[in-house]
Design a protein that fits this description.
8 strands; 13 helices; alpha/beta; homotrimer; globular
Amino acid sequence: MTESAAYVRIVEETPAYWRVLFDYPPFNIVDAAIFEGLQGLLARMDAAPSLRAVVFESVNPEFYLAHFDLTGHIGNITTAVGPTGLPILMDTFVRLTKSPVVSIAKIRGCVRGVSSEFVLACDMRFASRENTRLGQPEVGVGVNPGGGATERLPLLVGRGRALEIVLGANDFDGDTAERYGYVNRALPDAELDGFVDVLARRIASFDRRPIAAAKNLMNQVSLPSADRLLDAFSAFQTALTWPEAQQRIQALLKGGLQREGDFEKRWPALLGTLLKT
Amino acid sequence: MTESAAYVRIVEETPAYWRVLFDYPPFNIVDAAIFEGLQGLLARMDAAPSLRAVVFESVNPEFYLAHFDLTGHIGNITTAVGPTGLPILMDTFVRLTKSPVVSIAKIRGCVRGVSSEFVLACDMRFASRENTRLGQPEVGVGVNPGGGATERLPLLVGRGRALEIVLGANDFDGDTAERYGYVNRALPDAELDGFVDVLARRIASFDRRPIAAAKNLMNQVSLPSADRLLDAFSAFQTALTWPEAQQRIQALLKGGLQREGDFEKRWPALLGTLLKT
Amino acid sequence: MTESAAYVRIVEETPAYWRVLFDYPPFNIVDAAIFEGLQGLLARMDAAPSLRAVVFESVNPEFYLAHFDLTGHIGNITTAVGPTGLPILMDTFVRLTKSPVVSIAKIRGCVRGVSSEFVLACDMRFASRENTRLGQPEVGVGVNPGGGATERLPLLVGRGRALEIVLGANDFDGDTAERYGYVNRALPDAELDGFVDVLARRIASFDRRPIAAAKNLMNQVSLPSADRLLDAFSAFQTALTWPEAQQRIQALLKGGLQREGDFEKRWPALLGTLLKT
C-alpha cells in the first residue's frame, strides 16, 4: 500500500459497495497526498465493473476533511494535471461527478473550502445533525473558492443562499445546511451510519446500467461546464498571489491553523476580526 | 362518453375551473387508456377559452396514479405519437407544461415512476402530509426514468436530492417531499382539499392573458429542452429490452404487482432485496 | 440633499458598510422618485472603492417598499432609460446584481410586485419571521411581473413554487418564504437587526477583490440574461394597456390602494374577489 493509499483507505464491504476512509492525521488537511489518494481510488473505481456505490467518511469525527493546505510544503496541487488534462483538483472532482459509480459523502466534523467542494462533487451528502461544520471560508481568507463551489452552489441552493455561504464565509451546522439544500439531509448522529449504509447497500443491489444511464441523463442538466470551473480555478490561483490574501493566510497560520486542534475547529468564526486581533 | 374519458373524468366546477378525477380501478395504473384520457382532456382544454385552472386528483385515496403498466397488454404507449410529433407520453406532458391553463396536482396515495413524472409536468404540486408515497423507483426496476424526471428534478430540487430520489429509487412521504421541494407543500390531509380549492378558484378569478403571459415567461427559464426529454425517453425504451430489467419486472409481477393492493402500496421498499427473496 | 436622496437615505456606518433607509411616506410606494434615489445610490457606490456591503431597510416597519405606483402621476419609470441603455427599472436591478458591493435586503412589512423584484435583485434576503408580507400580486392585478420575478424566481425556488408565487399572486409570510427559498432566512423580529448587522460587518471586514471575484463567478451561473429580462418588461408594458388590467387597477385604487393604510396592508388577499365586490 502506498502512503497516499493509507490516507485514503478503501474498505470493500462488498464488490458493489466500498467505503473510503479519510485517515490523514492530525486534521485531514487536503494536500497533494489526499489528491494522490483520490486519483488512486478513481483508477480502482474505473477498473471495478461490479462497483455501484462508494461512501466517503472520516476516521476522525472532528475533521471530515479540513481544508486546502495553506503551508504549501507538500507537493503542488495547483499546477499538477490529471488524466483528463484538467488541473488535478478539477480532474478529481469532475471524474467523480461523471463516474457511473454513485458517490455519497457521510459528513461528521469540519468540512471547509476545498473539502466542501469535494462533498459538492459527490452525488449526495448526508450530515450529522449535531456535528457538522460545513462552509466556504475562502473569501474571508482573501481568495475566491477555486474548486467548484461558486459554480455548484448556485445550482444547488439558489443564488441568494450561495452568495451568503460564499461571501459570508462562515460555518453552517447540519440543520441549516439541510434547510439550505447544501446537504441532502442532516440526521441525528446516532442514525447517520445506519441511514447511509442502508441507502448504499440498496443502490449496490441495483444494476449498473440503469444507474449509469440515469446519472448520465441528470448530469446533462445539473453540472457546470469545464469552462466555468477553469475560470474559478484560474481566479483562485491569481488570488493566492495577492498581498492581502498572503497577509490573512499568515495571520491564520500564526494563530494556530494546521497546528492546534482547537483553532482548527473554530477559525472561520474568527475571520471577521482576523486582522484586528 | 368514451371509455378513457370515464377513467380521466372532468368535473366542470365553473367555466374557469375544472377538476379532473382519475378513476381507473383497481390501482389507477398508467397505460394507454390513461394517456388517451389525458389527450382527450388536452383537446378539451385547448377548446375552452374561459378555462384558467385544472386540478388533478384521484377518486381512490390509496392510489393517485400507480405507475407505468409493466404487463404491456393494453396498447403501446412507447410507440404512439401525439399531435406535436413527440411520443405520446412526452407530447402529453409537454403540452401540459406549455398550456396557458394552470395545472395543479392534488396528491393522495401512491405516485410512482411515470405518475411522479406526470405531477412534475403539472405547474404545482400539493400533497397530503399523512398519505403520500411519491417516488421514482425505475432504477430499482432495472431501467432509467423516461418521462422527464431526470430532466425536471435537478432543476426543482437540486442535483444532490434529485440523484438521491432517482438512484435511491424509494418512496418519499409528504414531509420529506416538501422539504426537498419535490412538492410545493405538504398539508394535513384534512386541509388539502380546502387549500387547493381556494387557490384554484382564486386563480380562476384572474384574467387569462396575464396568466398566460407570466407562465410563458417562466417557461423560458424553467423547462428542459425537448432534446433532453427525448434522450431520456429513448434511453428508457432501450433499457426495457435489457435482460436484467426484464428479470426485475418479472420478479415484481410474480410478487403481486398490478394484482395485489398490499404489494402495490409497498413494493418500492422491497427493491433492495428484490432478487434475493 | 436632493429630494429623492431623502427618500433613499444613506447611513455610512463605516467606509466599508452602508445602510440604506427607505423613507418615502406614507407607504414607500415605488415610483420615479425611488428609482431616482436608487440611481443616485448606485452612482455613489461606484465611486466608493472602500465599500463592501450595503443593507437595504425601511424606516417604516409596516412597509418595506409597497409596490409599483399605479396612479402613474409621478414621472414615467416605464420609458426612462438608465446608464446601461436598459429601461431604468432593469438598469437599477441589473447594476445592483453586478456590483462588486454585496447587497443585503433586511425585510419588515409589505414587499410586493416591483418591491419583491428589488429584493430578488439583492444578493441576499433576510426577513422578519412575524412581520413579512412578500409577494408578486401582478397577475391578480391583470398584468405579468415585469421587473425580473418571472426570470429570477424559478432559479431561486424552483419552477413549481415560482409558478405558485406568481400565478397565485398572494402574500407569503416569513416562514413560508424561508421554506420556499424566497428569502435566505426568516428570523425572529427581535433578532433580525443583530443578525444582519453582524453579517454585514463581517463581510465589510473582508477584502474587496475576493468578494468581487467570487460574486462575479457566481453571477456567471445564476443571473438571467438581459434578453429574458427585457421580454418580461416589454410584456408588462403591453399588459398595462389591456382593458382587463385597467379595470382591476381602477377597482384597487377605488378600494383604497395608495390611500388607506389598512387596505394597503391586506389588498393581495382580496384579489380573488376583486371584481365581485
